[in-house]
Prior knowledge:
A: alpha/beta; 9 helices; 14 strands; about 25% strand; B: alpha+beta; 4 helices
Amino acid sequence: MLKFARNKLVTVYYGSPEVLMVQGVLEDDMYGLEMDAQVRIADRRLISVTGKWHRYTTPECPRALGFIPKAEGLVITENMGPQLQKLIGREGCRHYATLLTEMCDTARAALQSLNVPAAASETDSTLRPAAEGPAANPKATFQAAPDPPSASSKKFPNEFVLDLHVHTFPASPCATSQVEDIIQQARAIGLDGICLTDHNHFWPPAAVAELRQTYNFPIFAANEITTDQGHILVFGLERPLNGQGIIKLADLRERITASGGFMIGAHPFRGFLTFGVGELGLTVEKAAARDMFSMLDAVEVLNGKVTAAENQFAAKVARHLNLPTTGGSDAHAISELGCYATAFKGPIADERHLVENFKAGNYRAVVL
Amino acid sequence: MPQLLVFSRSRRTSVEVLDSQTIRSVCRVQDNALEAWVNVTATLPDLEITHIQGGVEREAETRCQDSVGGLQKALGVRIGAGMTEIVEGLLSEAATCQELIFMLEECCQGIILSLTRDVLAKAPPDVEGKRAFFAKMVQKNTRLYNRCAAFAPGSSLVAGVSL
């Protein structure tokens, strides 16, 4: 017996010599919806998009219909899924975004079959462009940095508290706060320092040193690397991975061992929107048997972006394996700082000193 | 002018539980230019991909047929958060056919949706019961907050939810 099935049907026909009509239907066990779109052939632009529900799950799902017209004006290009999920999925409904993605791709195939050339320009001004590297001029919006709050005002006065997991824009395109704002907020809430762990992004040592000096605040370069086994917080990476795409965890382990670094499994049991690994019946013993844990130096058991249950499960697995544990906010915005961190027994001077302290076990995960 | 179709596409993704430790999803696509399929088998409850198969029945060129073998690069990947990034990253070099990669992702999404269905099946039938059910879900998993219109500020499902 089938447990689940999803059907999508898209049809394309001429509404006029200048316009293609694209109709789509999505029907699965949970949702039933349809969409109508019009595509101007000359420039492959969506000139009209509407949607209609047949079946949905929550009483508030109909609110999503108001967001569908945001797709109007887009030019149909290849691989529009991520763009449409950002534009109408995230604020409206991911299932409408999924169907519209199918419709756009089908329309593109239809245009190709009709020998219509691709549009000369394919721009979308509604999305922020992806960017590489740190903020261009960290000094531009900041004046002389005051001294950090006194240790006595903090929750852990005798320890050096670092947020080991922080993202900044534009180094992490998914983040919304610039590095200088993150630094200011980290100081304000009493952290002793932060680690910049932007996704697959190598912070040049000189840039980090400049930030450290400019803001008079301990900032350490690190990375959150995407591997075939999930996200890994990497400390002590001395050179960029040079666009290797998704690196295998085993290869990363070899590379970091050679450089004398340290690897922490980030949010290893991050679950899904409506259920977690607990609901699937995953036991601590079964989870601990995953090969990935034999390649890690520590496990992140306090992460600000997962549920309490997922953090607790990670802690149980780490305990089962006798692996040390860390905490970090996984902040992508300044409002997300200040939940979890890692407390070290003494001050940390630089990245090398940080790795030495990791290897000595001089730390613990803390709730702020 | 008669409204004849110039192009149509049908895509079906289905999921079945083979046994207490195995779940399988199949995605089939049929349109004017392409007819192909991908199936993914994963373990329960770990959701690790253990088998992948694919086939191209019809296509204008051989681009997808030549890329079927590249799908094996996704073996060992766990279906879960961040999976799309991992699959795209692993397969984009090995497989030049974006459609096959997409179908593999559809298979994985199908498995996630099938498990989501189990959760949603527990919602009470009445409207107020549903509101309470989903509000509790958001409270328990704040990732849901503002993830779509139904769970955005202003929705009754998040009224009173403390984050």
